[in-house]
Q: What sequence folds into this?
């Protein structure tokens, strides 16, 4: 099936966003943060949402989870098994809310330090599943086992302060799973963890989507990580989706200059250079987007029309890209540009150690 964004949406679509726009009220102004976003995730599928800080990834997740700041406005459709969450009354919305689980970057910010693991895990089971305290406790121990925590009978009595960050993230995932969601929104869920722990959480998500048929929206600023775990990757810039491809294709043959820049800016293990390439200029959010293509001030391949017209999503090999030059590919673009090689899409060079996003 081809989605409205031209991407290949799975047959059994659990979660679908159609032309979703979100605005926040900031002071007296209403400012856009997510603009006309289409994306879809099927049962058992992991879809990546990738972009620099401020691009609108978390606001997209919060739009799906109905967790926006007060005064926010949303248009379009957020479909869960075909039912539009935005058109539901409050009662129905509360009923379906447990179908959407969410885990965040910093578990310590979302877990009460005075609650034991048992308190945290059993609350949802008692409220949403109507289990007794004893039944909920048995289930909570099973959940800890599911997310790979050893000695769950002992761990369940611990407080957050007695656990490592990776272990606590597993507890958060267990909490999200406790009410058997159809969708898991993982917002930078591995970002604060060391590489080994990160790999463990990624393997866990991969197993859960296979065993439970979860549709996972995997949000990260790390394109290489998304490529490793995701079936499809959506690249976001200034609140809009600018490229949707399979992980493999986006890595081997990116079609949007922003994606090319993200790839070029990855630290490389074999690089002897003391300097990291970065995408020239600063990331922007939708509320600061210039006219035309929002990426044009940072793009080495800019055409006159890029400054005034918003490029549409066009079909490219195995997906879509929002660029007037999307059909050309990195090699042709580099050849036509004075900037030179694909690596130079990064456009600028920073001193080693400086942040690159
Ligand atoms: N609570 C908030 N109030 C006002 N603006 C916000 C709030 N949260 C995020 N924003 C703004 O919304 C835009 C998108 O933010 P966000 O979705 O958090 O980006 P990302 O997750 O991609 O880093 C940014 O300009 C950010 O400053
Ligand atoms: S539309 Fe123009 S400015 Fe935007 S990414 Fe493509 S070439 Fe660059
Ligand atoms: Mg975020």
A:
């Amino acid at each position: 099936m081809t989605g409205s964004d031209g991407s290949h949406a799975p047959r059994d679509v659990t979660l679908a966003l159609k032309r979703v726009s979100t605005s926040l009220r900031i002071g007296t102004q209403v400012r856009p943060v997510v603009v006309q976003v289409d994306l879809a995730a099927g049962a058992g599928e992991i879809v990546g949402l990738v972009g620099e800080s401020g691009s609108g990834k978390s606001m997209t997740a919060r739009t799906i989870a109905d967790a926006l700041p007060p005064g926010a406005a949303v248009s379009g459709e957020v479909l869960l098994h075909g039912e539009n969450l935005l058109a539901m009354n409050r009662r129905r919305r509360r009923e379906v809310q447990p179908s959407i689980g969410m885990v965040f970057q910093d578990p310590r910010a979302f877990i009460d330090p005075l609650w034991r693991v048992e308190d945290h895990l059993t609350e949802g089971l008692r409220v949403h599943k109507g289990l007794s305290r004893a039944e909920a406790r048995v289930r909570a121990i099973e959940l800890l086992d599911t997310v790979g925590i050893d000695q769950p009978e002992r761990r369940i009595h611990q407080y957050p302060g007695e656990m490592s960050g990776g272990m606590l993230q597993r507890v958060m995932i267990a909490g999200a799973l406790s009410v058997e969601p159809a969708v898991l929104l993982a917002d930078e869920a591995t970002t604060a963890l060391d590489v080994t722990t990160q790999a463990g959480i990624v393997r866990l998500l991969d197993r859960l989507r296979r065993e439970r048929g979860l549709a996972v929206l995997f949000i990260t600023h790390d394109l290489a990580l998304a490529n490793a775990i995701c079936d499809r990757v959506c690249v976001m810039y200034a609140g809009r989706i600018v490229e949707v491809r399979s992980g493999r294709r986006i890595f081997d043959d990116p079609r949007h200059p922003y994606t090319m820049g993200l790839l070029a800016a990855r630290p490389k293990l074999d690089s002897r250079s003391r300097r990291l390439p970065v995408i020239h200029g600063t990331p922007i959010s939708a509320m600061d987007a210039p006219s035309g293509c929002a990426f044009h001030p940072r793009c080495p391949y800019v055409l006159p029309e890029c400054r005034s017209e918003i490029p549409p999503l066009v079909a490219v090999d195995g997906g879509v890209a929002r660029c007037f030059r999307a059909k050309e590919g990195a090699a042709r673009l580099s050849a036509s540009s004075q900037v030179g090689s694909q690596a130079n899409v990064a456009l600028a060079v920073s001193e080693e150690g400086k942040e690159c996003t």
User: Anything to note?
Assistant: The pocket of adenosine-5'-diphosphate (ligand 1) is lined by residues 24, 26, 33, 51, 53-59, 69, 285, 287 (CB under 6 Å). Residues 253-350 form one domain. Residues 1-11, 339-357 have pLDDT under 50 and may be disordered.
